[in-house]
């Protein structure tokens, strides 16, 4: 499965734009604020109905609308017909369940459409609102709903969707991102059920020993000593209630240094790898934003090689400012974003091959 084309209407920097892609690797290069990240965000929204890893409905703000669309609305009489819509379409290959003609091009294609639009059921309330509000300064997203359909007009539900994407942004990763899944996978694959039970039991017993320490007893002696909070016994104890407490209580260590305290570059490298490993069997599209963050050229080269090897036949989208990323992959996978959109798909194969043996000095 892969994306052939993306169409965006009124989403952030894109008013009405269409992008076609390579079916294997797509490397986006452009200045800051050129729209590289916006393309990845649009793909995530259409695939997962998520924005930056959170449900789109909870993250819906006027900032997601194209600025020119906002200006046009604010300059109008504010009637319902002037309210802008965000519309994102993904044209796909390999998902016959999503095949149909419900798209702006009228093509018979596999695909997904997501629309952020005015809720017609709220029209009387909205009309009353604009009568009373004389100084509207933004898009009233409280009156909007999300419509998520495939190209056959069927509604998509998160639990039964046929495709998934993974969006990894090193700049937004929490220091413990992915570690619980990874530790759980290691425990489940290396230990028998009997040894898993013993591990959990031993861990719980260690936590219960904490309750017997003299310092804990001293605290509990003073805790609510006058029974002001409750007439019953009140104590501080280690939490042993969670059946998953072993995994949540363990931490990764690199060279005997716990993960949150190691270098940021090493954290990012490990977290990107963990994210890809954890989701490997459940994703169709891999998207990575600027993997060069905090990494030396040597480590970046190794990381890009790892990403390329691990993607298997999955489509990869990657944004970068680094010539080393291009040097590691190929110029004919380059997607330039500036005043327009240019994909170097027709670059001579000998030029692309030569490029991989030389160092690119500037992007």
In short:
The protein is α/β, with parallel strands linked by helices and 363 residues long.
Report on this structure:
The protein has 363 residues and is of the alpha/beta class. It has a domain at 2-26 and 36-163: Rossmann fold. The protein contains twelve helices and 16 strands. The protein has helices at residues 36-48, 56-59, 67-74, 123-132, 179-190, 193-210, 214-222, 245-249, 264-279, 297-310, 323-328, 349-356, and strands spanning 2-11, 14-20, 25-30, 50-51, 54-55, 86-93, 99-100, 109-118, 144-150, 165-168, 253-254, 257-258, 285-289, 315-319, 334-337, 341-343. Strands 1, 2, 6, 7, 8 and 9 form a six-stranded antiparallel β-sheet that branches. Strands 10-13-14-3-15-16 form a six-stranded mixed β-sheet, sandwiched between helices. Strands 4-5 form a two-stranded antiparallel sheet. The longest helix is centred in the middle third of the chain and has 18 residues, at 193-210. It is globular, with a radius of gyration of 26 Å. Residues 353-363 have low confidence and may be disordered.
Strand content: 15-25%
**Sheet having the most strands:** 6 strands, antiparallel
- Per CATH, the class of the domain at 2-26 and 36-163 reads Alpha Beta
Rg computed from alpha carbons, rounded to a whole number of angstroms: 26 Å
């Amino acid at each position: 499965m892969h994306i052939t084309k993306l169409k965006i209407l009124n989403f952030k920097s894109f008013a009405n734009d269409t992008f076609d892609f390579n079916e294997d690797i797509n490397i986006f290069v452009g200045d800051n604020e050129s729209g590289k990240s916006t393309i990845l965000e649009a793909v995530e929204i259409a695939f997962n109905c998520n924005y930056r890893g959170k449900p789109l409905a909870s993250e819906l703000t006027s900032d997601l609308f194209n600025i020119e669309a906002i200006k046009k609305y604010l300059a109008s009489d504010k009637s319902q017909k002037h309210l802008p819509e965000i519309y994102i379409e993904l044209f796909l290959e390999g998902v016959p369940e999503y095949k149909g003609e419900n798209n702006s091009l009228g093509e018979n294609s596999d695909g997904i459409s997501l629309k952020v639009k005015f809720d017609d059921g709220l029209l009387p309330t909205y009309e009353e609102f604009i009568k009373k509000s004389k100084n509207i300064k933004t898009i009233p997203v409280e009156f909007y709903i999300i419509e998520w359909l495939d190209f056959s007009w069927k509604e998509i539900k998160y639990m039964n969707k046929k495709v998934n994407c993974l969006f990894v942004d090193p700049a937004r990763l929490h220091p413990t991102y992915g570690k619980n899944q990874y530790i759980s996978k290691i425990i489940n694959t290396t230990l028998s059920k009997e040894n898993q039970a013993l591990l959990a039991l031993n861990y719980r017993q260690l936590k219960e020993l904490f309750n017997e320490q003299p310092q804990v007893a001293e605290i509990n002696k003073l805790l609510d000593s006058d029974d002001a909070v409750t007439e019953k016994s009140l104590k501080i104890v280690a939490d042993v209630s969670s059946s998953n407490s072993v995994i949540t209580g363990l931490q990764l260590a690199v060279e005997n240094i716990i993960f949150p305290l190691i270098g940021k570059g090493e954290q990012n490298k490990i977290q990107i790898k963990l994210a890809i490993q954890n989701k490997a069997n459940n994703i169709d599209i891999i998207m990575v934003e600027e993997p060069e963050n905090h990494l030396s050229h040597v480590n970046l080269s190794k990381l890009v090689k790892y990403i390329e090897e691990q993607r298997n036949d999955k489509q990869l989208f990657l944004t970068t400012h680094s010539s080393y990323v291009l040097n590691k992959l190929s110029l004919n996978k380059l997607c330039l974003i500036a005043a327009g959109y240019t994909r170097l798909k027709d670059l001579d194969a000998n030029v692309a091959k030569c490029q991989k043996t030389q160092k690119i000095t500037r992007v």
